[in-house]
Design brief:
The chain has 6 helices and 6 strands; from the N terminus they run αββααβαββααβ. With 140 residues, the protein is an alpha/beta fold. A hairpin with a 3-residue loop joins strand 1 and strand 2.
Length: 140
């Protein structure tokens, strides 16, 4: 079960107040604030012509990313990496640990990792919090 600190709770409250979307989780990094919203709330989070997400970015003064909840781990991973195509997902369970191996084309490897590894760190944190599963990127 994930634990939210005061900064997380303030961020969730601010996000929900500005967008009207229900956010279930937040990951705050040095460069971005990442929200996980309820299924069907992505439109509310973004707002008409991006108005809500623009207000949220101004409030936090950094990049804001929004992903939609999905109880299916494979679909959740595909939405995290979009628009990067995932060619394969293998989940290995060993001695009470789960690891998802996500395969992308070599040409998409840099985009999947992100600047200074920011993107993959965010994806890893969300997958761990949501599914108690580690993430490994495989490029071929």
């Amino acid at each position: 079960m994930m634990e939210l600190n005061n900064d997380d709770l303030k961020a969730l409250s601010t996000f929900e107040g500005l967008t009207g979307a229900c956010a279930s989780d937040v990951v705050i990094t040095e460069h971005a604030v990442v929200f996980l919203v309820a299924r069907g709330d992505m439109g509310k989070a973004i707002g008409q012509k991006g108005s809500n997400i623009t207000r949220v970015r101004q409030a936090f003064g950094r990049q804001v990313l929004v992903f939609e909840e999905n109880p299916d781990m494979e679909q959740f991973l595909r939405s995290l990496f979009a628009p990067i195509p995932i060619t394969n997902i293998n989940v290995h369970e060993k001695m009470n640990t789960k690891t998802a191996y996500v395969t992308v084309d070599e040409a998409d490897r840099g985009a999947a990792i992100g600047h200074n590894g920011d993107r993959i760190k965010i994806h890893r944190a969300l997958l761990l919090r949501k599914f108690n599963c580690d993430l490994r990127l495989v490029a071929h």
